Structures are given as structure tokens and as C-alpha cells.
């Protein structure tokens, strides 16, 4: 694939696809008439073979109209169709009871043989015969040994009802598998509080914190969400995550403020497409650079303040800011982003990112050639500079570079590419005639 | 020639038998399993005597489609089908209402709503539930709490553990399996795996040898051996079809699914996603195939849905090829078909013409198949020839060959700055981490900060999940052993031949999937030769033997191939499947493979299953 990739493209284009397409088309015209009697499986436009289940669901659900006679399309009947072994969960349950010896089987197993609709009721009842803690734990261990999650859960439901949580927690700590099922079970039935207590007693505080934090996703109202995040701040996160949660809270707090501030005229000129609430920080920074540029550092909505509060890297800040200002065609602001002054007052352009990327971003935002070529000029690598200049038609840069390289030959070649009589053309002529041979 | 008007369906001469025929082509006749599942379904339907309507958990219609068509249900008095929705059930003059559902609590609430709002005076209908693949205490408990348990006549389960997906492929279609096993340490899906393997052994005989690598593999093998002891009385008297079973944990090879698959089928999955054997494609390219006149009138806006399996001759031929070999394959096929149609000029006698005409249906099927795949190939080519695809692939290949995996990667940095889809970023960062045996703390922190700042702080939940599963981790003091693994197992082949492959590395244009190398080495010369590497990968490796009843020992003919079932716990990619098929077809390979898995995955669907807040689609 690698380097060969390009090579294959050519082969692809020229020979193969077009050819097979052509073939397909020519064949089609040949057999157009027979088309109607196509003997292949009919497929509705959505691609479901007609008669497939999902197609039929749609069909019967959407109209009461009878589907009429659907031809028997079943498979060749195998008269001696093999049977699957009957080893449903009922089986594991009975094997579970086997573990309790003959008497237990007599006591409990008959219920299991009843029709299933009956057994479920009595079966819960039958578990209640396990009274002592010891019996209950034996029951749990046997369930775990049977590996059937359904059975384990059934026993756990019973234990949850019949044991104090302190007792249950204590016993679960030494029973890893049962514990996992219990956690899963509590999650399923959304018993958040009990889960929190369980994690605490297990000393799995980080899991607990993350689980609680996760809940913010279910809160729609931004003020409630913010308050909830605030309440998360005291949870025992790992140091890294604690920072992230703090940032998350601060961000939403800021967004609520920013959402309702700003100068009316810019919003009128560039109406917002969406609310800033719950957007990532980089998006928020972009928004700030777009609508709140030039505000003093002290305001919450100013880019500088956001940059500082959220420790945004120089690169990210520059890219985001550049994107926003270029979008507004505020070329002066763009210019200022890169300009640094040394102590003598000389200005110089610097960037934490290669200037070739700056050029790309500006070009994507339809920057005029004058702006573009200034940045193309700042690209250090000469070859890269020329190729960028050619890509974006910055004639001056190309001509000057060849002039500086004293590359007469290239200049002559380039003269052939520009329009005769244009200012570029004249410039090349001038250089060629002035230069020393 | 409109495509979906109801009337056009009614009088179809179909060759429906074809639908399942592809399951019987392979080395092992998987249609037996399908037939068994169908029999089970018929039996359940007959339990509810009288006319019936089925209310579907929509998710199940896909997997069920692999087992049965509507016609089977109709034969058993299923007159209506609805999608499970809250509120009141639609009117239908039937005796039974059957809910086909997964055991999920939220679905129980909907069922309860349906049952409660039923008008009992006017339409006394019986309610039943069929749980797929297992009934669940928890769900029944919920139904009881909702006060509807008593209204249900019949609660049953339809054990659909292993679904025959293709002639050599079985899937449990259990989306959450990896997450459950490796993140939540919930082993329920492993229990189902073991059960599914028991079913398989009941139909195809006891598998004499079990090999495995990984914690979950060990666990499944233990359960199987235990279940066998419990079933000791009811030994199957079937000559074993499989010679051995290889159980592989997904987490011994976290790298492979992260890489972009480069086979035809793999790329279709990467780009459009294949679900339950179907793919949805943008309709534009396919519209042109209809008669020209109509194109302007009703340009379809709905995606074109296509079934993809080996029942289609052309697809079976090209699915596992490297995408760079697809153009040539299609053009060769086009020439053959053109030539076949040209034959009509040579048909002079009535007999010859008859002969030609009789072949027309087959030729037309081949033609439309060729047209479809030419269109798909064009769609995919647009993507594979893009700058972005090339750059991404370059970085992946750098990581896999161990170039600069210990530095912040500027391409990843740029992608974050451009806000490329988060899953793409996560795939790359995880890949770098896996290929470097963890990232330096400083680098890991840097990526994490960039990701959280750009995509939102809530993704710290996802990052935590990735760390827990080992996909992303800080480097510990131990040295990076990935280069050793790569060299020992020859995971990188510098001169992979994409057109005429001689090694499995062609499926990723250079990278040979680790999981499949392990499979290959196990067959020859055996794992003893790579003990060192096996120790570097997580979890135990083991071998177990299962006693066969006397008289069932297979007497192998000279030169007869062995049949191995490879079970991927936690998912397998199409490219890995392609690599195994390649090994099956090798002349001196000596082993043919049947593949089973909890779920067919790709890097994107896999990472998505680990996210706590998946991106909006």
C-alpha cells in the first residue's frame, strides 16, 4: 500500500473500474428485455430481501393491508432436523439444588418441574427456605460455581432482601464474582445510593467518584448541572481527574455567564448557530475569540482570561484564535497574533507552529493573496516555501526566492507560466535584464 | 419498475433456498445449527396455539433474519408483526401476542405499559414473552413489580448463542461482550459462550482438544469441562467434526482491531459498517443502475441496503482480497461475463439458443453483482485515495513498525487541532500506546489534556475506561516488549504481496495480525516454540483434552486436513477472518478454520463500545 498507493491509483482509474463499469453497462443494454423476468431473489429498495423479518415488521406495522399470498419460500425441509440439547437456565438451577443433597432436591426440585409460569413464583418462595446466614452463603457459593449470571442474580436479589447490607457487603468482599454481579445488578436497577455505600465499604473510592460524576450526563438544566458538578468537587477522584472535574465545573459556570453577555451588534452581524453551553473548552475559546475579542483580561468572557484559567497551551491558543479571527477576516488581528517586539522596538514575527500550517489555515479561510504571501515568506524551508507559493499562486514570493537563489533558469521557466504582460511578467523581465550573467 | 411498492412483492418466484445454501458449502455444515435453531423456534410458536402477532425488540430482527424468514413465522400462524413501542398495542385480531425481546429492564417497562393499556373487555388476547438469548430473573422481577407478571401466560427463552453468519463463521452478536468481560469483569457472556460451545458439541461431536490463551479463555474452558462432567450421562454419539478448539482472548491482541483493515470486506466495514450481514450504502451510485429515464424523477434518498455473504459468488471471491487487488479482480470478472454474453452470436441452433437462454438468469445475477461491487469499490476508492486516509495509514504503519512511538505524534496533534472525530483520535493514541507498551507519563498526560480540552471534559470517563482495559496506559518501569513480540512473530512483513499474497500480512498491507499468527504457530510448529512471547502476553496459555466415547476416534486419512474452531472472546475483525481463510486455503496448510466470536468488530465499533458517551451518530 504505502508508497505504492499512488501508483495503483492510476491503474485503478484507467483500467479497471471504468472497464468493469463499461462492461456492466454494455451487458445491461443487451438484456434489458429479460430484466423483468429476473430470476434472482427480489430485494426491496431498502435492500431487505422481500419476506425477511425486518421488512415484514415494517410492512405489517405500517399498513393493515393483507400481504396476500406470499409464496412459500422456506428452505428445503430437513425432516430429521437435529434438536438442541435442552439445557436452559432451569437446568442450572436444578443442578444448583443438587448441591444440597437428596432432601433439598425433594424439597425444591418438584417446583422446578412445574410449567415455567408457575415455577417462577414458587421458586422465589423456595429460596426463602434458606434461613441461616450459613445456608444463604452456601447458596450463593453454589450459584457462583454454576457460573450462570441469571442464577447468581436471583440469589443476590434474595440476599439483598433478607440480609442487612453490612452483612451482605462484608460477605461479598471475599466473593469477587458475586460482588461483580451485585454491582452490575445495582447499576441495572439504578440503586445509586446503595452502590455508593458499597464502593465506600470496598474502599473503591475512585470508582465511586467517577460513577457519581457520570450522573451529570443525565441532567439537562444547565444551572442544576453546574450545581451538581460543584457537589462533585469534593469527591475522592485521582489527582488528575480532580483537576478535570474542577475545570469542567468552572467551564460550565463561565459558559452560563458568557451565554448571556456580549455586544449586540456582532451577534446581529454574525448570528450564533448554537448555544455555547456544554461545549468543550476549545470551542468556548473560539467563541470568545469570535464574539468577545479585545475585552480586557479581567472579564470572564475574554480570550486571555479563558486561556489563563484553563491553562491552554500556546499552540492551541494560537490555532483557535487564528481560526476565529481569520473567519472574521480580521487580518489586522491575525497579524498582531504573531508580532513580537524586542526591547529595541523592532518587530518580528514568531509562531509556536510552523508557518506552513498558518498558511494552510489562512487559505482555508479565503485570505487574500497579499495576506497569504506574507506568511508564505516566513516559511523557513526554501523548498516548502516555493511549493506553497506555487500552490497558492503567490508570484512575488516565487520570483523573489529564485532571484535570491540567483536561479536564472527557474525564473525563465516561471516566466512561461505567468500571463504575458502582467506585473509578474514584467518583474521577471526586469530581474533577468538587471542580473549579472 | 418502482422498487418497494407492496404489490411487487406478492407474486415473486424466488429461489429462496439460496438464502441458506451458503452455510452448507463449507468444511463444516453450519446449516445443521441453523436448522436446529429453526426447529426450536417452530416448537415455541406451536406452544402458543392459535393466531398470533409478534412484537419485536427491533434490535433482534437483524440476528433473527439470519435464522428465519417471515414465511416460517407465517406458517405458524403469525399474522402480524409490530415493533416494540410504548403505549397501546395496535389492533390486531389475533389470539396471542408474543414479545420477542432481549432481557433488558427498559424493555420490560415498555411491555408492562403495553399489557396494562390493553383493553381486556373487547379483545382478550394472551400475552407471552420469548427472551433472547436468555430469560432473566432481573427482568421477571421487574415485570412483577410492574404488576403484569400474572398476565403473562408463557415466559420462555430462545437460546440463540451462536448464530450461523456464513459458511465458516459463527457470531453471538453480543455487542457488549468486550466491555463486560474486560471493563466490568462481568462474565455472563462467557457463560453464554460456554453454553454455545456445548450446543455446538451436541450437534457436531465432542471436540477432543482445547487450546487457549488468556484469562477469559481459561474461564470458558473451565466451564466447558465442568458442564461436560455434569452432562456425563448424555454423551453424544457423534463422530467429532472439529479436531480442536482454540480460545483466544481479545486482550492478548489489542493492536489488530485498532489498525485500519485493508481487505475489501474489512474496508466496507470500516467505512460503512456491516451489521448482521447487511451494509447500508449511499444510494447515488446505485441509482444510475436503474433505467435512465427514472433517475431524474425519483432519486432515492434512503440508503441502499445490501446483504453481504458468500452466497454471492463474486463477493465470496473478492471479499478477502486486499483492496489494491480488487480493481484487477473486478475487471477480470467483467471480461468473463462479457465473453459469456457474446456467446449469443455463436448460438445458431435452437438447442444452442436454448442453452444460452437457460444460462441467462445466472449471467444476469453475475452482472448485477458485478455492477454493485464496482459501485462499492468506487465509493471506497474515493476514500482510500484521499490524503487523509493515506496520512492516517502512514502513521498507523509507523507505529506498528515501532517508529517514534515514544514521542508526541504531530499527526495526532494536528488531527485534534482540526477536531477530527474523537474515535479516530482514540484509535491512534491507543495504537501508539499498545505499540510502545504504554506511553511515557508526560506524553499520556499531554494527549489526555488535548483530548479533554478539545472534545469535552466528560470524556475523562472514556479515557478511564480505556486505561482500565489496557488500551491506553502509562509506561511502567518494565521495558517495551512490543519489538520482541513483533520480531518473534514476524508481525511486520516488509514486502507484503497484495496481489498474490503468500502470507497473512497482506490483510493489513504489511502487518500480520498477532491473533492469527498465534493461531498459525499453534498449528505448526506449535506454541512450545514461542513460550517467551506467550509469557509477554496477558493471561495463561493452556491445553486440555476431552475424552471421546470409545469408537468415536477419528481415523485421519493421509493428507486430510484438520479442522480447528477458533473462538475470539471479545470480538474479531473481518481482516482477521480473511487471514484465517487465507490459511485454510493454503495448499500445504494442513488446517481448515471455522471462526466463532462474541461479535464482529472494527476499531471504531470497538472503541465506541467502551465510551461512556458515544458521539451522536
UniProtKB/TrEMBL annotation, chain A:
Residues 132-232 form the Vps16 C-terminal domain. GO terms for cellular component: early endosome; late endosome. One of its GO terms (biological process) is vacuolar transport. It is found in: Cytoplasmic vesicle; Early endosome; Late endosome. Keywords: Cytoplasmic vesicle, Endosome. It comes from the Eukaryota. It holds the Pfam family Vps16_C. The keyword Ion transport does not apply. This is Spermatogenesis-defective protein 39 homolog. It comes from Hucho hucho. The lineage of its organism: Eukaryota, Metazoa, Chordata, Craniata, Vertebrata.
TrEMBL record, chain B:
It is found in: Cytoplasmic vesicle, Autophagosome; Cytoplasmic vesicle, Clathrin-coated vesicle; Early endosome; Late endosome membrane. One of its GO terms (cellular component) is early endosome. Keywords: Cytoplasmic vesicle, Endosome, Lysosome, Membrane, Protein transport, Transport. The keyword Membrane applies. InterPro entries: Sec-1-like_dom1, Sec-1-like_dom3a, Sec1-like, Sec1-like_dom2, Sec1-like_sf, VPS33_dom3b. Its main location: cytoplasm. SUPFAM superfamilies: Sec1/munc18-like (SM) proteins. GO terms for biological process: protein transport; vesicle-mediated transport. It is a peripheral membrane protein. The keyword Thylakoid does not apply. Belongs to the STXBP/unc-18/SEC1 family. Plays a role in vesicle-mediated protein trafficking to lysosomal compartments including the endocytic membrane transport and autophagic pathways. Believed to act as a core component of the putative HOPS and CORVET endosomal tethering complexes which are proposed to be involved in the Rab5-to-Rab7 endosome conversion probably implicating MON1A/B, and via binding SNAREs and SNARE complexes to mediate tethering and docking events during SNARE-mediated membrane fusion. This is Vacuolar protein sorting-associated protein 33A. It comes from Hucho hucho (huchen). The lineage of its organism: Eukaryota, Metazoa, Chordata, Craniata, Vertebrata.
